[in-house]
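As a warm-up, study this chain.
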Amino acid sequence: MPQDDKAASTRPILYISYDGLTDPLGRSQILPYLVGCARRGYRIHILSCEKPGRFERDRARVRAICDAAGIGWHPLPYHKAPPVVSTMVDLAILRREATRLHRTHRFGLVHCRSYIAAAAGLDLKRRFRVPLLFDMRGFWPEEKTEGGSWNLANPFFRLVYRYFKRLESVLLRTSDAVVILSRAGKAQLLRRPELAGRSNAISVIPCCVDFDHFPLADAARRAEARTQLRIPDDAAVLVYLGSLGTWYMLPDMLDCFSVYRERHPGARFLFITLDDPSFIRIEAAQRGIANDEIVVSPASREDVPLFLTAADLGISFIRPVFSKIASSPTKMGEMLAAGLPIIANSGIGDIGEIVGETECGAVIESFHRQGYERALDGIERCSVSAERRRERATTIYDVQLGIDAYDRLYQRLLEA
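Now compare it with the structure written out below.
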């Protein structure tokens, strides 16, 4: 792709992420955007915190991607323990390294993914007047409290929560631009006094998908996937993709599968996840779901598109709490890219509106048998083809739309 001369002449950009590029999230939700922006002429450096096991396994592959795109990658070790204290240690290291890199490269913009990274980027804003793009993603302090990581009954965690809420207020007030994942999240932000009269400072960019990485199923790929997963050719398959920690409602999804298999005897529930399969099988057994009706398979980023072709229907139930108003689950775009219809619940970012607008699935009205029945009825009535679902999903989730949005932000901030 030819480079944009205007972009190529700008000062370099520093991207700071507390998530590692060798994490699954880094491969799917950081690198595709930044590689796309680098191809448009931006000179990008990435500062990230890498988990030791994943770093050793995948660093050569990630380094090759960065080198091919002309991206400078500066990995740092991630520290896990003790909780909170290790995070503050990582933050201090990020601040030090960001300052060191700036003195060498003289960045024209610092793009920070979520709160820890933004705390490091804020130093560059204050000390060197580097424009700050706060890619807040969602409401992280509320995620930590609602997810149970920070128990506010504990005085220590109350202090931690208040610290990050104060930081959030400073970031919203002083950042040159803010990115949020959903329109519902933006509406919530616009109630904040720090953003009064600054609606144009907030951009909505959902978690996007590289559609080239997720081809539609054909008969050959479907047969190959089912052979690898040991799923019968004639079985109806419900699929869940990704981690099952904290937010995802496994018992309710299993209850929905119980209704699904009544309609489709011999059905299988496929979990494409790196999680321990034992707790999935325990929960299933408590609901009278046989062991051979559950298929659990880990998958690399390269395996996921193939395994999705084994399925007939996707599912994602997420706890509808306040922090999830700002969410955009990556799995939704990936399942739609594969052409699958989806059953999901509302109250999670813009999912309810997206499912309605694209007619790509059904939204659960209640987590009870009647709600599951109505959702499955809706799926059976839907006449939208897999090709059409994918086409409609590209208008929302295509990674090129995300790259275009960041391109516009970069140009505006660098020119200013």
